[in-house]
């Protein structure tokens, strides 16, 4: 189970977090580039682990539990680094808070609904939200300094990433509301156990 390729990919996402934090703390243009590349690779593993688990018939309860945890740890650590190390404007804390609160909300709903044997499937809009969020965080990690480091300074990478982060936060509110209303519908249909 732990040695299945999909689970190794998921665990690698968690293992990448300390290095990503270190690179962000260094803050040099080469480190920004390295953090963005590491984050991109971690994002690719997020796509591959589920795909490979299905194709290799290596679906497991462990992987099903670990995958969303790895995602939330990676996103949470990245957002905290971007805000904490001033790698985006100070008002970037607002979309970061919205994204983090939604992740906690959905985790709590899934935990509750699992107790009453109800699954909360991922919606297409939530997948789009994740895609926009991953691109925005990758661009914010790279930043303008990282883009200049690799000779790409034609676009304001940091501001594009920041605009996409606000879009991700808006999608986060919509999908969070969808999940909350679905969860409340199920909660009302199942009276509490005595």
Q: Output the radius of gyration.
A: 18 Å
Mean pLDDT: 87
Low-confidence stretches: none
Termini Cα gap: 36 Å
Proportion of beta-strand residues: under 5%
Characterize the largest beta sheet: strand count, sense, and whether it forms a barrel.
Answer: none
CATH architecture: Up-down Bundle
Please give the CATH class: Mainly Alpha
Helix content: over 70%
Structural class: mainly alpha
Strand runs, count: 0
The total number of structural domains is 1
CATH topological fold name: Four Helix Bundle (Hemerythrin (Met), subunit A)
Silhouette: globular
Give the SSE order as H and E letters. HHHHHH
The CATH homologous superfamily is named CDP-alcohol phosphotransferase transmembrane (TM) domain
Report the total helices.
6
Question: Would you write up a description of this structure?
Answer:
This protein is mostly helical and 194 residues long. It has one domain: Four Helix Bundle (Hemerythrin (Met), subunit A) (Up-down Bundle), CATH 1.20.120. The protein is 80% helix and 0% strand. Helix 2 packs antiparallel against helix 5. The chain is globular, with a radius of gyration of 18 Å. The chain starts with a helix and ends in a 5-residue tail after the last helix. The mean pLDDT is 87.
């Amino acid at each position: 189970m732990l040695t299945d390729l999909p689970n190794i990919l998921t665990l690698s996402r968690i293992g990448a977090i300390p290095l990503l934090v270190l690179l962000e703390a260094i803050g040099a243009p080469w480190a920004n580039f390295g953090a963005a590349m590491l984050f991109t690779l971690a994002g690719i593993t997020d796509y591959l682990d589920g795909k490979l688990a299905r194709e290799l018939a290596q679906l497991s309860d462990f992987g099903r539990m670990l995958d969303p945890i790895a995602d939330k740890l990676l996103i949470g650590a990245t957002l905290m680094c971007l805000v904490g190390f001033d790698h985006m404007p100070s008002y970037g804390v607002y979309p970061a808070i919205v994204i983090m609160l939604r992740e906690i909300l959905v985790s709590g709903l899934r935990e509750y609904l699992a107790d009453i044997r109800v699954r909360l499937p991922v919606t297409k809009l939530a997948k789009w939200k994740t895609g926009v969020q991953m691109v925005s965080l990758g661009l914010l990690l790279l930043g303008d300094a990282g883009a200049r480091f690799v000779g790409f300074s034609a676009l304001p990478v940091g501001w594009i990433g920041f605009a996409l982060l606000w879009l991700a936060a808006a999608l986060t509110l919509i999908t969070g509301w969808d999940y909350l209303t679905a969860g409340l519908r199920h909660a009302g249909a199942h009276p509490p156990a005595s």
